[in-house]
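Annotated sample (chain length 482).
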Amino acid sequence: MNAIHEAGCLVAGRWLTEGPRAERVGPYVRQVVSRARTAQAEDVTAALDHARRSARTIARLAPATRADILDRAAAAIGERGEEFAGLLALELGKPLKDGRGEVLRVADTLSVAAAEARRIGGEVLPVAGWGRGVGNTAITQRAPAGPVLAITPFNAPANLLAHKLAASFAAGNTTVVKPPPQAPAVSTALVELLLDAGMPVEAVQVLHGGGEVGARLCAAPEIAVVSFTGGGAAGHAVAHAAGPKRVLLELGGNAATIVCEDADLAEAARVCARTGYSNSGQSCISVQRVYVQRARFDEFADALTGEVKALAVGDPLDPATDVGSMVDDAAAERVVRWSAEAAGAGATITTGGSREGAVMAPTVVVAPPRDARVVREEVFGALVAVLPYDGFDEVIEECNRSTYGLQAGIFTHDVRRVVTAWRELEVGGLIVNGSSNFRLDHVPFGGVKDSGIGRESPRWMIEDFTVTKTLMLKGLTIWGDQ
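Output written by the structure step:
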């Protein structure tokens, strides 16, 4: 029997553990692995009041102080990688190798946020270039925007919390965190680590709960910025509840990868197999649609199927496991149902198509109809669809048929195709000679269309978590007054 991890609410500097609690049953171990103290109406009120009162305290911290705290936290999580990876495996069924990778990314994210905190500044504006500006000086600075609400998803709960919380703190803001109900323990553990590293209690609060807690926080006038990562429908609800405040949305995807006839087919198949099923495909940039030039379509489908069959599926706590469980049985059943629908419409399932509990057998669906749900909707599961194409213009058009536009991949050695795809694909990022499922945490990340608004990674998030303030010095000039 695994120990049950308790996750309290952090409100106004106090951890609240007594009161109503929600249990999280691990999708693979099939037993309670964590309990979260759920936020009540009075907790939300107290947290919002504390955020309002704490905003100035955090804004007054020197950037060097914020950066040092984040650097200490980055070092600390590097020493506790196995603990965090184990929590991810228990709460989410994420294999240890994926969990270890996420922890490494958390350390990177915290370090990058620390570096960006040291760079926050402003500029002297060239006002004397216009007649009315002669004799004056104007200076800008990036100032904290105010309390930030960070709503995080279950699929990468540690790293995506690190992105939001670290960038908000680096910018000089206090943050209210609303973690996913599926991962309360690992979310709480990361906040505790940051507090141990020296983050002031005024800088962060944690409220566990469902959509009603999130909706009330989004609508609160005390919140200046809402940063949400999650599904499209929830994102629209967040934007509606938030109203006319700054809202950053990182939503879903339906990621396409193009394999051209000049590609290294074996490498493309290997990469698509590894990145299409990591975290059981529960990533907004997970490989979902692979378009292969028709002359090499059968060869690629066979190669991908072979690579997928070689993946180790099962216990997420086994270091050898490549594919663990999905977040719950319902998610796995939905993917089984969608794959069966595609097969009924003429597609071929070359491997997978079944589940055992929440463990979805890695599934390859070959040549589904273009209107099948595995093609036009976000699968967010252990399934990759493989489709043929003839002309390059045609495949660009097929990729763009999706309402999503987060990230894409292309395998080719033809720089003209690379430039054309970069220009024409309706996505926020393109990976060359790699699949859609690749991300560096210090590079801007985000999409277009239904994939959201704004860009993640500390530098770009700090821009959204700050406001530009201008100082005008009339009659005082550094430019010359003649």
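Annotation: The radius of gyration is 24 Å.
Annotation: The mean pLDDT is 97.
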